[in-house]
Amino acid sequence: MNILFVHQNFPGQYKHLAPAMARQGNIVVGLGEAQNIKKQGTQALSQAGIKVVGYNTPKGASPSTHHYIRGLESGVRRGQAIVRATMQLRQQGFIPDIVCAHPGWGEALYLRDVFPEAKHLYFLEFFYRAQGSDVGFDPEFPNQLDDLFRVRTKNATLLLSLEAMDWGVSPTQWQRDQHPAVYHDRISVIHDGIDTKTVKPNHEAEVTVEGGILTGKDEVITYVARNLEPYRGFHIFMRSLPELLRSRPNAHVLIVGGDDVSYGRRPPEGETYRQKYLSEVEDRIDRDRVHFLGKVPYQLYLSVLQISSAHVYLTYPFVLSWSMLEAMAAGCLVIGSATPPVKEVLRHNENGLLVDFFQTQQIVDAIDKVFADPDGMQRLRENARKTAVENFDLESVCLPQHIQLIETLAKQA
Fold first, then answer.
1. Strand order in the sheet with 290-294
2. In what order do the strands lie in the sheet with 187-189?
3. Phi, psi (5° rounding) for residue 5?
4. Residue 279, Cβ density class (10 Å: 0-12 exposed, 13-18 middle, ≥19 buried)
5. Neighbouring C-beta atoms of residue 245, cutoff 10 Å
6. Rounded to whole angstroms, how far apart are CA atoms 142 and 183?
7. Strand 212-215 and strand 220-227: pairing?
8. What is the pLDDT along the chain (413 residues), one digit of tens a residue?
């Protein structure tokens, strides 16, 4: 079977699936933006038997384009770049039986036209909504009527891709349900998968910070996000610190994440959200006990989770972070915001604790509860690990489901 994977940051969500399909003897080609591929390197992918092809970075939208449709114009330009790359593949004799693509940036717009004989399976990460989702959720960042119109138009690229696909896959039920109901019966819910053999409890783990070494025997509060930003509740977490540190005089706080912005509005030029929200509270916290680690190597990130006494995960109603599931797999006591899709996975007093996203005192109270009953909380930690293994394990659950879906789709006439 010939399989084409398309993702601007290839391998992206296909990090495990593409090599798995290659190991089964399929001919696998991965297509992504050349500069992104170069940054990540291709040696491991090539060793896995995957041919990696890069396309040139397309031009963005014109500054004169109406701001509602700049995303669509950018998507069309990227779709055209994909056409040029895939037409070359076709001329070289590679015609896929299955095309797997992430349509979020326009890469899937014209794939069906280039490969009409293939089955098209698209990774549906998020469909934007003006109500009931991330937009308008946080009153600190109010939206204007213009924003609602812009969000509706933002889905144009996704809608064209939905119409072209044979089948879709979303990581969580809630993310699937964000898409128009008419497509629900053609979208499977399969998570990308967590390597729970690697991400697991380790009582020997330790993390070196300024002032010493922290282990699982210390009071360690952890917070992790790709970037420290409001979409992941960074502002709420920071505002909880004065009372949290007062309540837990021996606790240390480890904060992992960069200063860029992955989602939502950017702060003013030259500022970062870390600077902004630290300045709000720095005269009320003990800076010697709050450690900003920045972006860290994966093994250090795992060690942070493994020594965590309480792990705080906050998010707008948006894409569920891998880090929350990895925290559960590592045996963390997760204190999560009672927002979708967190509530789909985290059950209060069963495998974690849920708090109101906006209520800093609830975060403090939940952490106090963790330390007040460490034996009782051990059950929640074990259940968190069990949830991750039984529902999100890469090798035993998610990867087999993905492979089965591809094989089933390929057999359809």
1. 290-294, 252-258, 220-227, 310-313, 334-337, 353-355
2. 50-55, 27-33, 2-6, 98-101, 119-123, 167-170, 187-189
3. -105, 130
4. exposed
5. 22
6. 30
7. unpaired
8. 999 999 999 999 999 999 999 999 999 999 999 999 888 888 888 889 999 999 999 999 999 999 999 999 999 999 999 999 999 999 999 999 999 999 999 999 999 999 999 999 999 999 999 889 999 999 999 988 998 999 999 999 999 999 999 999 999 999 999 999 999 999 999 999 999 999 999 999 999 999 899 999 999 999 999 999 999 999 999 999 999 999 999 999 999 999 999 998 899 989 999 999 999 999 999 999 999 999 999 999 999 999 999 999 999 999 999 999 999 999 999 999 999 999 999 999 999 999 999 999 999 999 999 999 998 899 999 999 999 999 999 999 999 999 999 999 999 86
Q: Tokens 């939905």, residue?
A: 162
- 357 contacts 233 by C-beta, under 8 angstroms: yes
What the chain holds in terms of domains, given with CATH numbers, is 2-193+394-411 (3.40.50.2000), 206-392 (3.40.50.2000)
The 8 Å CB, 24+ separation contacts for 32-39 are: 32/6, 32/7, 32/8, 33/8, 33/9, 33/57, 36/8, 36/9, 36/10, 37/10
**Per-residue b or e along 196-211, where b marks 16 or more CB atoms closer than 10 Å to that residue's CB:** beebbeeeebebeeee
**How far is residue 176's CA from residue 148's CA, in Å, rounded to a whole number?**
21
Q: Are strands 212-215 and 206-209 parallel, antiparallel or unpaired?
A: antiparallel
| Closest to 201 measured CA to CA, from 84, 350, 333 | 333
Q: Are 379 and 353 in contact (CB under 8 A)?
A: no
- Beta partners for 411? none
Beta-ladder partners of 188: 169
Show the DSSP H helices in 209-297 as ranges: 234-247, 273-281
Q: What are phi and psi of 194, to 5 degrees?
A: -115, 130
Q: Side chain identity at 204, as an amino acid letter?
A: E
For residue 283 the two structure tokens come to 């005269």
CB-based contact 36:10 (threshold 8 Å) = yes
Please tell me the pTM assigned to this model. 0.95
262 DSSP assignment: S
